[in-house]
Amino acid sequence: MSTLSQMQPFQWRVPLSDLDYGPQEEEAVLRVLRSGWLSMGPEVGAFEAEMSSLLGSKHCLAVSSGTAALHMAMLGLGIGPGDEVIQPALNFVAAANMTEAVGAEPVFADIISLENPTIDPLSIEALMTPHTKAVVVMHYGGHACEMEEIYELCERRSVAIIEDACHAVGARWTGSATDPTSGRMLGAVGAVGCLSFFSNKNLATGEGGLLATDDDMIAETLRRLRSHGMTTLSWDRYQGHASSYDVVLHGFNYRIDEVHAALGRVQLGKLGENNRRRGELVGSYLDALEPLQDWVVPFCTSSRESAHHLMVALAPDHATRELVVQRLREVGIQSSLHYPCIPDLAAFRTRATGDLAKTREFVSRAITLPLYPTLGLADVDDVVGAIRSAVA
Ligand SMILES: *Cc1c(COP(=O)(O)O)cnc(C)c1O
To answer: Which residue, by CA, sits nearest to atom 3 of ligand 1?
Structure first.
């Protein structure tokens, strides 16, 4: 059997992210293969119930990807032509693409600061118009947005919050004593929360995603949208619960399958410990990066809970960032940028934005360093040693 390492023409010594997969995942896949049922069925149901209990959300719907979840969230909230959706310019492009996919207009907001690169409530407020239908928040790197302020802002104007919680699975939001959302899990704060289980996420199944909502009506629509707008599933009919179906809206096939759900259940069991381990590694990075002059590590003074999806550091300037990225590559250490500024990408150049000065500075200086639960402490020293030698 050819292994992944034999197939890859190039091998990083320290990759950006890596799976924590082992015998339990293998066993889960075999269990499904031997069950004789591959498409959405009992494993998906069990995974959804387990995610509901983690998130404290009344309804959790597993879907084929985080992007599918975002698409359905937009549709489930009735977002369409003529609507504006305020969202971070600093985000993966999926939310912006799905805004366009439903015929609405993305409006891009700035970050709060280099230390807190989440969407700025002041920028949101400045961009609100009578056409604003929703705000997308993205908990950057697993760190919560300022949900108390954003929630208050949106409640006042009856604007829905969509949480792009793809980085933030397993972290709890804590606001002030008077914050009605305080204590909820990230992904369960807004009207609809969207998670991703892509291979590099904290809970990884290869492809996969999840929608979370407490709203019965929205959940019903999402359930239909997931499977062609049909009122019953193949599994229901196989179980003898139904023999026919109606089609009540124009839906998709955004279902997840049993293999991915079974992997998700095993990964969910590891999530708490793995997020804790990520936090510990971030602590080691902070200690090692401390002596570097004029570097900024976002969230380094935050006491809030985080899923620690990413380890991001900001070089003093763009030229230093480029130098460091080059050096890391030369010594076999993979790094990345989360993310380019979306309205600077070709397909979004004509879209409305606020003043994005802080986002653009962040993007010119940021480096994402390797972070995953199986990363060693020696690897952290190795990565930071390479950075130090590059800037010496
Ligand atoms: C991964 C990711 C997505 C998209 O999820 P997929 O499962 O890859 O479709 C969207 N937003 C953010 C912030 C992500 O990290």
So the answer is: 66
